[in-house]
Structure formats: structure tokens, C-alpha cells
Amino acid sequence: MKTLCVYCGSNSGSQPIYTERAIALGMRLAKDGITLVYGGGNVGLMGVVADSVLDAGGEVIGVIPEQLVNWEVAHKGLTKLEVVGSMHERKSRMFDLSDGFVALPGGFGTLDEVFEMLTWRQLGIGDKPCAFFDVEGFYTPLMGMLDRMVAERFLHPEQREDLWHGDDLDAMLVWMKAYTPAKADKWMDEKRRKAMR
Ligand code: AMP
Questions:
Q1: Does the C-beta of 7 come closer than 6 Å to ligand 1?
Q2: Interacting residues of 116 by C-beta distance below 8 A, sequence separation 6+
Q3: DSSP 3-state of 127
Q4: What is the CATH classification number for the domain harbouring 154?
Q5: What are the tens digits of pLDDT across the range 8-20?
């Protein structure tokens, strides 16, 4: 694993522990020689992760849409900052650059980005690991929502299991490095499955 994409809040959250865990992740990436790919911002947990990688001597690639540069939220001290035309272009570029995806706590943007990667993967686009690096159970209710999707037959159980959730950094990196994607069909309804045969 040479590069890892981190999605996280453009705010820092209510408790210092969010920043502390973001720093721990950044320091670990630098120590392991894994380049950080992220949204290129200098705000919230995004800025914290980027700074912690850089401070520990690691490399950081930011991918940011022009609009956000104009709003002056781009990080000026990165190893490389790629400015792209749109949010769509950014997602696709981050996908190409990264060997895996990690969501730290965040808001709409963080969930949008990590769920897009999960969505693409269950349709067979890409075979890269996705992890929710949890802090103080922040993502536990979301995992409950995924279980509900499985119970209600909106999500294949194998796709549900095809992600990592936890707060142990070592365990997450071990899982990501050993990852092989699930092979389950996206569709569970008999009608759709018949049409595919
Ligand atoms: P949110 O979780 O809603 O705070 O959004 C964070 C995610 O959206 C990040 O992973 C970024 O890719 C993107 N994003 C939101 N705000 C910014 C910003 N000010 N600069 C760069 N990217 C941002």
C-alpha cells in the first residue's frame, strides 16, 4: 500500500479526541511511508491529518476543486496540490491516486465520499478497501443503519461485511493490506437475478 485516501470533517468536532486520533493516523502514515491523499483543505480534521503527516516527514497530495481554492481553504504547504475543475473530477482523481479509503469522523462530505467508493465497488468499479476509522463510537449508529439495510434486504450481507469498522489503527492497516473484495451480486431480487442469467 503506497497511498491512502483519508476523508474527514472540514470541522474538528466537539472533542479533542477527534484531533488526537487524526494526528495518530497522520503520524502512522508518515512512519509507514504511505502517502496521504485527501481533499486538500487546511480546515478542520482535514488540515490536522495533513499537517501531522507533513510534520512527521511524510508526503501529502491534496486534490481540491478550483472553487474551494478561491475560498482560500486550500492547504499551501503540501507535497503536491492538484487543482481540479469540479467535485466530480476530484472524486475520480482521488480514486485513481489511492490504494484504499479511510473515513475519520466528519459530516455530509465525508459520508458522501466514502459511500461513493463503496457504491462504485459493489458495482464492480474498483477493488480497493474502505474503512471507517472510529473515534469514541462515532460510527456505531451508522453501522446499525447498514445492518438494518441488510435485514430489510436493501444491502447484500457480503457487501455489508466488505468494509472495516473499528478504532485500532494497527488492525485497520493489516486488514487493508490483506484486502480482497467481496464477489457478491449487488442485486438480491429474483427478477433482477434472472435477468442477469
Ligand atoms: P464534511 O464532512 O462535510 O466536513 O466534508 C469533508 C469532506 O468534504 C472532505 O473529505 C473534503 O473532501 C470535502 N470538503 C469539505 N469542505 C472542504 C474544504 N473546506 N476544503 C476542501 N475539501 C472540503
A1: yes
A2: 91
A3: coil
A4: 3.40.50.450
A5: 999 999 999 999 9
Which residue among 6, 7, 10 has the greatest number of ligand 1 atoms within 8 angstroms of its CB, and so is best to mutate?
A: 10
Q: Which residues pair with 163 in a beta bridge?
A: none
| Lookup result for grid cell 469514541 | 136
The residues, any chain, with a CB within 8 Å of residue 76's CB and separated by 6 or more, are 42
Number of domains within the chain: 1
* Measured distance CA(67)–CA(84) in Å, rounded: 9
Tens-place pLDDT, residues 115-135 = 999 999 998 888 899 999 999
Strands (E) in 2-70, as ranges, are 3-7, 35-38, 60-65
**Quick one: which of 126, 70, 137 has its CA closest to 101?**
126
Give dist(CA 89, CA 95) in Å, integer: 10
| Structural domain harbouring 62 | 3-196
Residue 112 CA to ligand 1 center (angstroms) comes to 10
Q: Which residues pair with 38 in a beta bridge?
A: 62
